[in-house]
Amino acid sequence: MTRDTRWGRRRWLVGGGALLLAGWAGGLAAQPGAARGEAAIRLALIEGLSGPMGNAGEAVFRNLVWAAERVNARGGIEVAPGVRRPLQIVRYDSKGQPQEALSALQSALDDGITLVAQGNSSAVAAALIEAINRHNEREPQRQVLFLNYSAVDPVLTNERCSFWHFRFDAHADMRMAALMGVLKADPSVRSVYLIGQDYSFGQAVLREARRQLALQRPDVRIVGEELHPMARIKDFLPYVTKIKASGAQAVITGNWGNDLTLLVRAAREGGFDGKFYTFYGNALGAPAAIGEAGVGRVIAVADWFPNAPDAESRRFYEAFRQRFPNPADDYVHMRMQLMIEALAQAIERAARAARAAPGGAAGPSAVAIARALEQADVTLAGQRLRMRADDHQAQQPLMVAVMERQGAPGVPFDVEGSGFGFRVLQRLDAAAAEQPHTCRMVRP
């Protein structure tokens, strides 16, 4: 029985003294029992917190908890002169399924919450965007904002962009371009195998891999390409057998969660000695699964790595590990911390604008908070994120790193107690990582 089964669909977390309270139009208001009349600003986390991808959901939860605690430690979010509200994260288990996520969204709405966060699965994100668009048109008095920290299918901020949706992760094409910058400079790779999860994100990764290879490494042969069911494969050894038989010198994959861990474990057991160019090879069990076989061969792209070569990053990561000392609770996401900082900034900015408006004092609307989020510009531990208003795609630096033994030059920290960490090979500033978009934003 999972924790979420024991506690029901929802769990409430008290972070930094936050109170278990309800929300007005932007997520604020008091319920009976609030000490000193304080009210929390509540953010609903709709995520797969059980099932085969539950470890990824729990990692998100820890990150958002820590980010909320930091906001609350400085007094919370200022909603009026001298009035600050704590931030509260509320869990809703979607089991990683679109229909369950829609049910969780309705539960959050029934609970009076109108700030929603989700990210693990672009298919779920697409369903939430569509449902939130419909809801906001039907019920303009309680409109919902959607903060996306990991769903990276490019269409979500291109053809399917929405005024109510903000993405804080680099999308798949941005990540692939960063990976290709490293592969382009690697003459040892002359043949690759493409493998991914069979849904919108996995399909987008393989499509962009083909396009980028043709542009940047036309000499590299694609010797195999495969999509597999998501979160349903228990043994990847048959796939690894095909990869080895193809003669591939490298694998390119966007797999995440157990689908990545089981793939790299099978590669180790099956004796595949090629490289892995990954989106998420730096955590959630992958380094421990591949072990020594991954040293110098598993490459990952992210917005940030714990071994980023600067003192601010080191202090930031050490603070996270102090808060979550269990190695199994590793995997800190800088973008999630920046997302919460951007939300706090936007609510405060919108509240000030509401007070300054004729007849002010009413709380800011979801539209006002969204417009403030369009101007988000936040920095934490030396990492800056700004929101591009045209398509609601966050712009931030990207890093590419390679797996090494902890203690090797540039690798003071390992991942999840595995003894292996990631050494940064390349850092792209936000301008270099930025890509054009096709969004035609419809604003209220």
UniProtKB/TrEMBL annotation:
UniProt-listed CDD domains: PBP1_SBP-like (cd06329)
Pfam families documented for this protein: Peripla_BP_6 (PF13458)
Keywords: Signal
Transmembrane segments: none
The protein, known as: Leucine-, isoleucine-, valine-, threonine-, and alanine-binding protein
Family indicated by similarity: Belongs to the leucine-binding protein family.
Leucine-binding protein domain mapped to chain residues: 41-407
